[in-house]
Design goal:
four-stranded mixed β-sheet, Heat Shock Protein 90, 33% helix, globular, 14 helices, 20 strands, alpha+beta, 4 domains
């Protein structure tokens, strides 16, 4: 057992643990085990029950507001476990400062992060705050709304229904993002040659409606990653990178990014891939596993996300990862997703053709892109025995045509 982002060891009881109580209360919860050395070996406490009382008093006297926690004693080891739950009344402060975990260390949050915690404690998002500029126009939004929603015009009542305006606060940040002109950063795009030092094109779309930024970025993508070929009497469009994947990745970057950071969404275009990097890590309450599996949707900007959904820019909210992966079905390449505390990167490789044997096609067709299947499930749906199914699956995995989930007896497969 080792220390990690949600687990800390304390050999004895000193006030330093109170910073970690603040951090766990503010971000996702965690446990502190007293009587354990940093290397995970047991040191034990002289009087665990007295230690519990001491820990409780220190927390109650110094952490504001009162955090949600529980204490248990491990009598055989003479250790005490303090389990701290994530709280709803953020920020939880120790000596007027709020803390967060950074891997195995506990550090003070900066002013920007403290503001975010205060908003969370008030059950508010940044996009809900009143915009500084109130002289906003919405020609692009109105054009799209008339076309997709079926309204006759974008009047004040419609703006209220879309949660972009209130009589008391006026327009909010979400409205400003959708306005024809605004002060927010946008999308920075660069097209590279043979190396990253050779820039063939550089363009930045900013201070305009995010709807316009998205469409102009998609047009740049089309210039480089789509072309037409003539087959017989028809012109056939060929996509080097699936447009649905690019559009979904960029729309999700706009919906999920942190807008209180003065940084652009970055789109880097190479011969073999596109990289889309979005400021801000995962929203609070979503794990990396949930994000990658597309099994949960926690919107950092729910107003913006709902409008993108109403305008049919994105499909059902929370299915973006699945749609991006689905766009690569039938290709030997797979999109990649990288998640850190401060950024999310989506890598969209250039498509290549997936050449399969007849046996591989049968197995491939029996798989689903959303519901992984076990080898037994696949065997029941194809005219092969289990040993041949396993052998063909190995070949498909080597061709990057199949994704493996889990290991051992619980192993499952999908496209």
């Amino acid at each position: 057992m080792k220390e990690n982002k949600t687990l800390e060891f304390k050999e004895d009881i000193t006030n330093t643990f109170l910073k970690t109580v603040s951090a766990f209360s503010n971000y996702g919860g965690g446990s502190i085990i007293f009587g354990v050395r940093d290397d995970g070996s047991i040191a034990g406490l002289a009087d665990p029950e007295k230690a519990c009382l001491d820990i409780e008093n220190k927390i109650n006297d110094t952490i504001q507001p009162q955090p949600d926690y529980e204490l248990t004693v491990q009598y055989e080891k003479k250790t005490v476990t303090l389990k701290v739950h994530a709280g709803m009344e953020k920020p939880y402060m120790y000596k007027s400062k709020a803390y967060r975990r950074n891997d195995t260390a506990t550090i003070e949050v900066d002013k920007l992060e403290l503001t975010r915690l205060i908003l969370q404690g008030r059950n508010l998002n940044y996009e809900q705050l009143a915009a500084k500029a109130q002289d906003l126009t919405f020609q692009s939004l109105e054009r799209k709304a008339v076309q997709e929603i079926g309204i006759s015009q974008l009047n004040r009542d419609v703006l209220k229904t879309l949660d972009l305006y209130s009589d008391t606060e006026g327009f909010n940040h979400a409205a400003e993002l959708l306005a024809d002109r605004n002060s927010f950063p946008g999308i920075d795009m660069a097209r590279f040659g043979d190396s990253i030092s050779i820039i063939l094109k550089r363009v930045t779309y900013e201070h305009m409606s995010v709807l316009d930024e998205l469409e102009q970025a998609v047009q740049v993508y089309r210039d480089y990653y789509q072309y037409e070929v003539i087959k017989g009497v028809e012109r056939v469009k060929v996509e080097k990178v699936p447009e649905v994947a690019f559009r979904e990745a960029l729309a999700n970057a706009l919906i999920h990014r942190t807008w209180d950071v003065n940084a652009h969404i970055r789109v880097l275009m190479f011969e073999d891939r596109i990289e889309i990097t979005s400021p801000g890590g995962l929203p609070s309450g979503m794990t990396e596993d949930e994000y990658l599996k597309g099994s949960a949707s926690v919107l950092r900007n729910p107003i913006l996300g709902n409008i993108f959904y109403r305008l049919h820019i994105v499909e059902i909210l929370g299915t973006g990862i699945l749609r991006i992966r689905g766009a690569y079905r039938g290709s030997g390449k797979r999109p990649a997703f990288e998640v850190s505390d401060n950024v999310i990167k989506v890598v969209l490789p250039v498509l290549d053709s997936l050449e399969l044997t007849e046996d591989e096609k049968i197995i491939y067709d029996a798989l689903s892109s959303t519901m992984p299947k076990s080898a037994g499930d696949i065997t029941n749906s194809v005219p092969f025995g289990r040993s041949k199914v396993i052998a063909v699956l190995k070949r498909l995995i080597a061709k990057n045509a199949v994704v493996v989930h889990g290991n051992g007896r619980g192993t499952k497969y999908s496209r």
